[in-house]
Amino acid sequence: MEYNFKEIEKKWQAWWAENHTFKTETDPSKPKYYVLDMFPYPSGAGLHVGHPLGYIASDIYSRYKRLKGFNVLHPMGYDAFGLPAEQYAIQTGQHPAITTEQNIARYRQQMDRIGFSYDWSREVRTCDPKYYKWTQWAFLKMFNSWYNPETDKAEPIDTLIAKFKAEGRWDGLTEKEQSDLLMQYRIAYQGETAVNWCPKLGTVLANDEVKDGYSVRGGFPVEQKKMLQWQLRVSAYAERLLAGLDTIDWTDSLKEMQRNWIGKSQGAEMVFKVSNGSQEYDMTIFTTRADTIFGVTFMVLAPESEWVEKLTTPGQKEAVDAYLLQAKKKTERERIAETRKVTGVFSGSYAFNPLTGEKVPVWISEYVLAGYGTGAIMAVPAHDSRDYAFAKTFNLPIIPLIESCDISQESFDAKEGIMCNSGFLTGMSVKEAIPAAIDYIEEHGLGRRKINYRLRDAIFSRQRYWGEPFPIYYNNGIATAMPESALPLELPEVDKFLPTESGEPPLGRAKGWEYDGYPIEKSTMPGFAGSSAYYLRYMDPHNDEALVSREADEYWRDVDLYIGGTEHATGHLIYSRFWNKFLYDLGYVCEPEPFKKLINQGMIQGRSNFVYRIVNTNTFVSCGLKDNYETTEIHVLVNLVNNDRLDIEAFKAWMPEYHDAEFILENGEYICGWAVEKMSKSMFNVVNPDDICDRYGADTLRLYEMFLGPLEQSKPWDTKGIDGVHRFLRKFWGLFYDRDDFRVSDEAPSPAELKALHKLIAKEEFDIEHFSFNTTVSAFMIAVNELSDLKCCKRAILEPMTILLSPFAPHIAEELWHDLGHSESISYAKFPEYVAAYTVEDSFEYPVSFNGKLRFKITLSKSLTPKEVEAAVLADPNTAKYLQGGVARKVIVVPGKIVNVVC
RNA sequence: GCGGGUGUGUUGAAACUGGUAGACAAGCAAGACUUAGGAUCUUGUGCCUAGCGCGUAAGGGUUCGAGUCCCUUCACCCGCACCA
Fold this sequence. Notes:
Largest sheet: 7 strands, mixed
Low-confidence stretches: none
Helix content: 25-40%
Shape: globular
Distance between the termini: 63 Å
Radius of gyration: 34 Å
Strand content: 15-25%
Mean pLDDT: 89
């Protein structure tokens, strides 16, 4: 019987579905293991061969853990709200729900062909009202909570009201005043803020949805605009988000990215007296270099700072206004493009150094950001490169504060050296001077220690249709929460998916978009809303009473292994951690961190192929000869090429214009050129997993994607070598079948056969635990080659081999498993029970070297002490040969490793 | 600029806490069986002046012994970027 993968795969996929093989139940008698993939946004293009890489890895690990006796939760769902479906709806009028439904169906079909072991009964879709009820619920909880700095956690807003009452700050306020007051504390709050506004999309975007001044989705220009927006007080969690990183098993680079994003910096706030000639104020600035206070030669304000108005003198008003206007007109993009250009204007006012009393000018410049610190800085040009550039441009004085530093060409930014020109700090090292300066400032009431974070609150409103509606209505302009009983607040129908004529979001078109006669909020929630807590919903997906029941949460707790792309490092992975910590504070979940271990799978790039047409002809020249002609490089559909050799007939049939093409060959073949590029339709390099399944089968696809290289590395898709993997599966099949005869026998295995099996077991367990799936596949190939040479067809060997292979190639394993006489799925096999009692001999090969040169090996018991090993080596007849009559000066024994004899 | 990472044959890549570098594949070459083969099987395949020689981006160090540890330099990739 031949290995007929098509039939086998179809048969078992249907069987798994029918028997609900992968359905998971909460089962406290077994240890749990939760393996999660980042759920996909179902785009119209379908899956290409790169998407399943992480899914295959997580599936292998899930199946492996199941064989090891764990109760594995391995669910899948769809991040189904999003811009592309809405854009498509605007263009075609087709409701995004329909587009999304179709795309999901296609994704599902493609995933099913690969044979994943998802428990589809737990599927979630973020656009399903039964699901987004809980997104809205969490929002209500955030609206009705505040962050208590004393307990360092979120608490119900009632505790804050009680506090205000006790302090006498509540009674007597109007309803509006009370609302405004609470708004400053709520975790989900409404506030005026500068946002990334994308006019083309008609909506605001989060920072991670903008790249280089263009929207990530669509690539439209983005500008800064001040708007009233819903926001989440993520910044309140900055310290805990930072500290939590030390408790989780993520890669260093990813943790570092999050640390940078949170951007903790320790320094001091300092108060400077400022005067515009007629009035004096106290202005607070933030600095990390309090030690450089004696080198302050000017101050700088952000153009958006509220100080600008107060400190602009009548004489400078015209110049300042002109500068502000010009700064405002610039888009974010232009600001970035002009990063190196120094601009600014003098305000007319002066500040007074709190330590020296010296009078320094106050300037306004774009290089100071309104959103960080206090939006105002003290400038120390000698020791800050930005201040230095500014001082040089506007001819401001530069005072060096560190002995013998050279500041003629550039500033000296390093925090090292001995202070000079610095009053009481002179003579100290910089490291001593920083705390000393802050201590002095605190003692004299000039300022205080302060920690600043770069992390900003998350903007939570989007002016578009295809997202979760806010369960908020406006009672005389006061934002009011709906009761939980009103959830889910379902997305209403609209006639068009565009903003209204008056510039309102699309929900402004919905008829009767009211609650109790009051208008409902018209913006919707952003993409990350639905993806922030989906891992919790999988634990208990059909619960109408709670996001997740206490029982389910206490059993499944957190995600043990999370696999997904690195592109979510500062978006989803921060928001999700924040969301989880918030629910943790209120007691709805029992783990402070949602994702214990995280692996970023690499991207699979496309490998494009080219043909070379000689200009003005229809003749194509093979790659190796192309330099002899003037040619045009043309992308060719990769399916027409095998190992860079063009299938000429298929190429001619591909497009009418190539019908009569002629070819200049080398060695009788047409060799194509190639390049690694992003996988995309326009480059004809998209490889569809369905095609691979047709040609080689899902098991080969799975094995090959793993064999391609380390999981975390990006690599181009290249079908070179897929035959080798396919051959391996056929060889494995051949151990069971000789032509049509199933030849597996119950004969006792030989030591050589057992050794081959157990070598594989040892390697496999170690490698899978380290996610080194490429070497695991290699180990399999070695074992099968060895058993093939031994002509082994014994049950005691092949049965455990089949179980071991099942995570990687589940279809063929299932088929052979049933051929071996089992009626249950191989997924229910308990691997340890099938491992024969075979212990690797308790001996070890010690390599023996002389003066570091390896000479021979000696086999000794592992349990010997170093002294005994030494004696055995010296007594060995080989030793005499290398000592050449001399004496060993020293014998170094590294237990379990090597013996080195120094002569 | 700052932070993280990588550098090994013709190619994808192995090498667990330092211990015979290049496993396993791909490619290439030769051979076998074949009417034929992009099928199957066998063998060979780091480099050269062929020594028991040289080789893991380059140079230096620690060690009996370094792809692995330390320092310097170079190249590439990723992330952040006027964050005071």
